[in-house]
Design a protein that fits this description.
It contains one helix and no strands. It is an all-alpha fold and 42 residues long. It starts with 11 loop residues before the first helix and ends with a helix. This is Type IV secretory pathway, VirB4 component.
């Protein structure tokens, strides 16, 4: 998504949205990794 968000052929609003979605997905995945790490230790 981050690569697609830098595509100059897309309208600016679409690129911004793709970058926002990439950031949100990254935060979600980091949260999952943290949750699984905590579960694994218990």
């Amino acid at each position: 998504m981050r690569t697609r968000g830098q595509d100059p052929t897309l309208p600016e609003m679409r690129r911004v949205r793709l970058l926002e979605m990439a950031d949100a997905m990254d935060m979600f995945c980091q949260g999952l990794v943290c949750a699984f790490t905590v579960l694994r230790k218990n």
